[in-house]
Design goal:
single chain; 433 residues; alpha/beta; Rossmann fold; Dihydrodipicolinate Reductase, domain 2; Alpha-Beta Plaits; eleven-stranded mixed sheet; 14 helices; 17 strands; NADP; oxidoreductase; methionine biosynthesis; Asp/hSer_DH_NAD-bd; amino-acid biosynthesis
Length: 433
C-alpha cells in the first residue's frame, strides 16, 4: 500500500488534534483512501510538552523549514497561524512543490490571491476547508456540491466566541464582560479576543466564501465590519419583545451587479433557523438557483472538529496524488481565467430595515421632530415604542423602520444628534429576514 508522508507545522490544539486523528483513525483512513497517511515530521517551538501522542521524538523538530525541505514529505499541514512566518512557510513549501493544507483564514483572506497564483504555477494543491466554520464542509459544498448553481446569497454565524457571548447575554442575562470571561475559561475565546468580538475573524471567512460563491477575487479590504461590543442587554431584551434574536451575521449577496459584503450584529426573526443556533455552534445558509436555501450547522471550532476538516483535505489531496490528478478542483471554485470582475457594494448603498434606539429628550414635539427628520430622508417608521426607564430629562425611544438606505439612515441620525433631540449616540442594529 502506498504511503503518503505528512509534515505538520504547529503542534498547538489543532495540530495535536490532527496528529491524534491520524494515529487513532489510521486503519479507517487507509481503508477509505487506499494508502497510508504517515506523519513524517512535526515542527513546533515547544517539543517538550507531553501531548499524549505516540509520535517518536526523532520526528519532532523546532525547525519548520527542515520539515518543508524534507524531500520525502508530500503534504505540509500549516497550523502556525498569523500572516508573517506562515506566509514565508507557504511560499517555501510551494517553491519545493509541496501540497498544503491549512486552517489559516487570515492568511488566505489577506494573501490568498497571490498564494494561489504561485501554487498554480508550481502545480501545487492548496486546501483550506478548516479555515471557515470548523467541521462544516462549506468549502467543499461551494466548490463542488453547488457547482451547477448560481449563488444568490449566503449568510452565516461564523464566530463561536461571539455566538457564545450573545447566547449567554440572551438566555442567562449575563453581562458582556462576564460572558466573555466564560468564553475564555471554556476555550472559546483567545486571551486577546479583539479579532473575534470586533468582527474581523468573521470578515476573513466572508471574504473567502464570497470568492467561492461569486467567482470574484478575494476582497477583504472592502467588507464592512462591525463587532458586538456595543450590543447591550437592553437591546437584546427589546429585540425579544419584538420577536427577534440578535446574532453576529456575515452577509454576502448579489445586488445590482455588485456584491453586498458585511459583518455586523443583526436582528433575525425568532422563526428563522439562525435564531436557534446557540453557544459556540456555527451555521451557514447558502441560496442557490437550483437548491434554494441550504442550511449547514455544526461545531465551528475546537480541537477535533477542526482536525476533522484538515484530515478531510489531506484525504482529498492524497487521492489526487494517487490518481495523478492534481489541481482537479480550482482553488476558488472558478477557473482563474474565468473569474468575475465584481466589486463590493459600498455600505452607504445597502438597503435593509433598522432598529434604532434613542435616549430622547422628554419634551413636547421631540417625537414628532424625530419622525419628521426620518421622513425628510424617505425613511418610513413601521413602529414606535417609548420604554420605561431613562432619567429626568430623557426616555428610551425605540423605532423599527421599513426598508431604507444606509446613507439616508446615517444622515438622519446625524441631523437628530446635531439638533440635540436625543442624549448620546443612537443605537443602530440592522434587521434581516
Amino acid at each position: 500500500m502506498k504511503t503518503i508522508k505528512i509534515g505538520i507545522l504547529g503542534l498547538g490544539t489543532v495540530g495535536t488534534g490532527v496528529a491524534r486523528m491520524l494515529e487513532e483513525e489510521k486503519d479507517l483512513i487507509s481503508s477509505r483512501l487506499g494508502a497510508e497517511l504517515e506523519i513524517a515530521k512535526i515542527a513546533d517551538l515547544d517539543i517538550e510538552t507531553d501531548r499524549g501522542l505516540t509520535v517518536s521524538r526523532d520526528r519532532l523538530t523546532t525547525d519548520a523549514f527542515s520539515v518543508i525541505d524534507d524531500p520525502d514529505i508530500d503534504i505540509i499541514v500549516e497550523l502556525i497561524g498569523g500572516e508573517t512566518f506562515a506566509k514565508e512557510c507557504f511560499e517555501r513549501a510551494i517553491a519545493k512543490g509541496k501540497h498544503i493544507v491549512t486552517a489559516n483564514k487570515a492568511l488566505i483572506a489577506s494573501h490568498g490571491n497571490e498564494l494561489f497564483q504561485l501554487a498554480a504555477e508550481q502545480g501545487v494543491d492548496i486546501a483550506f476547508e478548516a479555515s471557515v466554520a470548523g467541521c462544516i464542509p462549506i468549502i467543499k459544498t461551494m466548490r463542488e456540491t453547488l457547482a451547477g448553481n448560481t449563488i444568490h446569497s449566503l449568510a452565516g454565524i461564523m464566530n463561536g466566541t461571539c455566538n457564545y457571548i450573545l447566547t449567554k447575554i440572551t438566555c442567562e442575562g449575563a453581562s458582556f464582560e462576564d460572558a466573555l470571561a466564560q468564553a475564555q475559561e471554556n476555550g472559546f475565546a483567545e486571551a486577546d479576543p479583539t479579532l473575534d468580538i470586533e468582527g474581523y475573524d468573521t470578515a476573513h471567512k466572508l471574504a473567502i466564501l464570497n470568492s467561492l460563491a461569486y467567482g470574484m477575487k478575494i476582497n477583504l479590504d472592502d467588507i464592512y465590519v462591525e463587532g458586538i461590543t456595543k450590543v447591550t442587554r437592553e437591546d437584546i431584551q427589546f429585540a425579544e419583545e419584538f420577536g427577534y434574536r440578535i446574532k453576529l451575521l456575515a452577509i454576502g449577496k448579489r445586488t445590482n451587479g455588485a456584491i453586498e459584503a458585511r459583518v455586523h450584529p443583526t436582528m433575525i426573526p425568532m422563526d428563522n433557523l439562525f435564531a436557534s443556533v446557540n453557544h459556540s455552534v456555527n451555521a451557514v445558509d447558502v441560496c442557490g438557483s437550483a437548491t434554494g436555501d441550504m442550511f449547514l450547522v455544526g461545531k465551528g471550532a475546537g480541537m477535533m472538529p477542526t482536525a476533522s476538516a484538515i484530515v478531510s483535505d489531506l484525504v482529498d489531496i492524497s487521492r489526487n496524488l494517487i490518481s495523478g490528478s492534481g489541481q482537479r478542483v480550482p482553488y476558488l471554485s472558478f477557473r482563474s481565467d474565468r473569474m468575475n470582475d465584481l466589486s463590493i457594494l459600498p455600505m452607504d448603498e445597502v438597503i435593509t430595515r433598522y432598529y434604532v434606539r434613542f435616549m430622547a429628550k422628554d419634551k413636547p414635539g421631540v417625537l414628532s421632530r424625530i419622525s419628521g427628520i426620518f421622513g425628510e430622508y424617505n425613511i418610513s417608521i413601521r413602529s414606535v415604542h417609548q420604554k420605561d426607564g431613562g432619567d429626568e430629562c430623557c426616555v428610551p425611544l425605540v423605532m423599527l423602520t421599513s426598508m431604507a438606505r444606509e446613507k439616508d439612515m446615517r444622515q438622519a441620525l446625524a441631523d437628530i444628534e446635531s439638533l440635540e433631540l436625543s442624549k448620546g449616540e443612537a443605537v443602530l442594529i440592522r434587521i434581516e429576514k
